[in-house]
Amino acid sequence: MRRGVATFTLDHGKCPAWLFRRMVNLGREMVQILIAEYGPDEFIKRIADPVWFQSLGTVLAFDWNASGLTTILTAALKEAIRGQERQMGIFICGGKGKTSLKTPEQIENWGTWLSLPDKHVGNLMYNSRMSAKVDSALVQDGFTLYHHAFFFSKNGAWTVVQQGMNKVQKTARRYHWSSDNARDLIVEPHKGIVSDPYQKKRSTLNMTSKDSTDNRSLTVDIVSQGKYFNLMKDIQVLRKHSSHLSKMVSMKVNKDQLTLLELAPREFKVHPVMTDSFNKSKYLDKILWKICDRQPENYEKLLSMKGVGPKTVRALSLVSEVIYGAPASYKDPARYSFAHGGKDATPYPVNRRRYDKSIEVFKKAVKKTRLGYTEKKRILNALSASNN
What we know:
Number of strands: 9
Distance between the termini: 30 Å
Helix content: 40-55%
């Protein structure tokens, strides 16, 4: 799996009908050329590249750094290939809002139409569902998912493009997944994570990080023992002291001081325990009972269980960290910034070579279209401007 993240200003309003029609018509021609040039599998793979995806949106005349690019571009591409999916060899399921909930059904419908093996269709549906779970429960960055699109080829290549919004910051963040070299759906095999802004002051619980390995392992060990009441004793400690944890309060045990959680050396300014509530929750207790009863053999199995969401992951993570000392990562996984280009190398330098290569691919594709000289020049100028 490879995943990327991009964050943009949250847009309001709708895309004008004339612009959407233009994006559909131009998108159809661009997709045909790109698939003819690179093949359907490569096209699906490249959709997973945040910069490549962003470049395609620019070609179709949408704002480079607008959150609406994700939803409108996906909808335009879906409409552009309608009726030609089989000839092109690519398929797009899901979309924005309620349409995203239809993703499994649409994957299943295409699988039936293409006579794909049930196991293969089941795997596609599973990858779609797990990508949404990971980016909502394991990457707790303050963004609520509202868009989920699943791209796949008849040969089995797949990509997920999903987006979440942060209503407080009025920003949206995009997440990319790809089947390319997929080995693990949990541990951070990120291709390119792009974000603006990089969240330094607000901690992001990132359970996909390699720094969270011990926390994930200990969590599985705890629940795989099937000892629900032992786990609940640990949860009760959190419930009893959650109001004091953020102040680095310690309690005395046999005249020795036991520090529950050391926050002072952390780089972040906000920790989940400062805003979380560990008051008794019948639903959380029910899910924890279910997990202990089934005793999942690994972290992916745990996450895949129905009902396991952000609160459950957070509770188990804090038990592993606070009670047993296995730390989790609280670093924002964002790596690049569209708005600032990462020119100051914060938090990481931009991969300029890959960035320039993506732009060149689209310039060559535009030149091969049947567009008029004026239209080609306008698009090429837009691509050049986005690269400066």
